[in-house]
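Same chain as my last thread, 105 residues:
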Amino acid sequence: MKKGEGQSQPMEKQLYSEKKQLENQLDQLKKEKSKFDHYLDHLADQFHDFLFFGVSPHRKQFYHLLNDSKEEAEGIFRREKRMIECRIECPLVEKYSALEKESNN
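reply #2:
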């Protein structure tokens, strides 16, 4: 048995467990974003039903706010998604780099 082989299995199980938790967080984040997108689309649909807002400046202002909200939500989603993906990838990269160094020695 090589040095460190006995410890690698618990470490792999822990990394796998952490990865699964992070993937679940990522799925939850995607679901929340989907709900938010649906909510914004619902708001836009309701907005079309009001004839009062047929006045152009109000309509432009509403769509400007709606688009800002969508862009901000998209930015937050991308940032959170990337943070979770990095938390998934980084431990794996570090672990395999360490294992590679051990095998070269």
